[in-house]
Amino acid sequence: MGAPNMKLITFLTLVALMGFIAGPNGAYGAQVCGTLTVERAAWKLGPCELAAKAGNVKVSSTCCKQLRNMIHNPRCLCAVALSETARRVGVLPKIALAVIKRCGITNRPVGSTCGRTSNCTVLHVHV
To answer: Which interval of the chain is the signal sequence (predicted)?
Structure first.
């Protein structure tokens, strides 16, 4: 009878630990960016960092590849552009969202807005 109780305790401990690691925004991020948190998605777009800080920096092919993988989820891209991770490294949301156009991605959704107080237009930024 001790072994099943130990398995249950181990399972509950792992669930609690996963919740702690995800943090308070983990559930929200997982909804917006599929199985990734917003912060994890931001790190996946690390190759875009320099281009997202300045409009005159050449966009790398690695960055464009990552954006093509995420283009189907504009809400996630918006959340990444407005994330704490992006803010900490100096990413400017309007420039970051314009990188999609600079990559030549033509099948981007148009007309969504990014954030309640932001003037960024997701995936349709006038450059």
So the answer is: 1-29
